[in-house]
Amino acid sequence: MTPFKDMAKFLRESKIAKALIDRTKVYESHVRMFWKSARYEESEKMIYSAVRKKDENDEDIDVEVKFNVGEVRRVLDLRDSDDDPTIVPERLCKGLWFRMGFSTHVNDKYLKSKFFRPYKFLVHCVIHALSQ
What is the pLDDT of residue 1? Predict the structure, then answer.
């Protein structure tokens, strides 16, 4: 297999695969409204917010939604759990960056030109997926 096929296979099997390939339209106004009204209830472990939708008379109405972290994981198909580590030790990050060909200090700017060619493709895919 070529390095690009290996990288494409890795991306398809990764936890962020859905975020990379999903083409659901997300409108900035919806995101702003969601975050303007979002709140987290620690006692219930739920996220509450409001979204706007059309009712049966085609009028705009605000509807409160609530969901938990498990539902976010399910919808985004993250395939992880609360028990997964969230902070990766610095030595593991350094090892990963060096294996990817990143030759400067880990805290420097991350430039695509500093990575080996197949990893430039990975960085390119992630940047484009996150920018849409």
Answer: 56
